[in-house]
Amino acid sequence: MTDVIAAARAANRTILSEVEAKQMLAEAGINVTETRLATSIDEAAAHAAELGYPVALKVVSDKITHKTDVGGVELGVADEEALRAACQRIHERVIAAVPDAQAQGVSVQPMAEPGAEVILGITQDQQFGPVLMFGLGGVFVEVLKDVAFRIVPLEPRDAAEMIREIQGFPLLEGFRGQPAANLEAIESMLLQLSEFAEANPEVAELDLNPVFARPDGAIAVDARILLTSES
């Protein structure tokens, strides 16, 4: 059991914060944006100064899954003055939307260069065990449900096939003049997730959404991990 999972178990939590999820993933070698927890505005400003502007700010609360829906996200924050105002806006909106949010603070991360948005995920099937999912990310995954699945463990051939199975594959090849995504980087991340699923059977669900797939690689800018119940 990793230190992150042990801490969550000790606190009787099954949902990891984005900061915790990315810590686990980074330790497994999966490319994620560095993300730090700030419990005060001054701490957020200090983190942003070290990480470099512009930054993204997101509320951290066990009771909030969809942060954007409650106004808990500020993107492209350009400097310390803007950060202090953004932290205050997040606090006011979240309290108005979820009075008992009990937020632990905000996460601070550098803005990543955008690319084609894809989703990578893990779910647990009662019969087959961990299953990997790949598809178009962002809002598209909920609308189009254009996804492919494979049972863990994955072979390199499986990762390549998953990517090419989805209807939206032309978007990754460079549709209408857009730069093509680095398909090998996506394949590599799928294989890393397969290993991650095998090494962490206590992970019931995992979503990396979005992953920015660019010509120079792929990076996850948001992550969600749900643990199995101890029973």
Can you put this structure into words, describing what you see?
The protein has 231 residues and is an alpha+beta fold. It has two domains: 34-110, ATP-grasp fold, A domain (Dna Ligase, domain 1), CATH 3.30.1490.20; 116-227, D-amino Acid Aminotransferase, Chain A, domain 1. It has eight helices and ten strands. Strands 5, 6, 7, 8, 9 and 10 form a six-stranded antiparallel β-sheet that branches. Strands 1-4-2-3 form a four-stranded antiparallel β-sheet, with helices on one face. Strand 8 and strand 9 (217-220) form a beta hairpin. The protein is globular, with a radius of gyration of 18 Å.
- Residue windows where pLDDT falls under 50 for at least 5 positions: none
Name the beta content range.
Answer: 25-35%
Helix content: 25-40%
Largest pleated sheet: 6 strands, antiparallel
CATH topology of the largest domain: D-amino Acid Aminotransferase, Chain A, domain 1
Oligomeric category: single chain
Mean pLDDT: 94
Number of structural domains: 2
In DSSP terms (H or I, runs of 4 or more residues), the helix count works out at 8
The top-level CATH class of the largest domain is Alpha Beta
Q: Radius of gyration over alpha carbons?
A: 18 Å
Structural class category: alpha+beta
Tell how many strands the DSSP assignment holds.
10
- Tell the overall outline: globular
CATH architecture of the largest domain: 2-Layer Sandwich
Quickly list its features.
Dna Ligase, domain 1, 36% helix, 8 helices, six-stranded antiparallel sheet, alpha+beta, 231 residues, D-amino Acid Aminotransferase, Chain A, domain 1
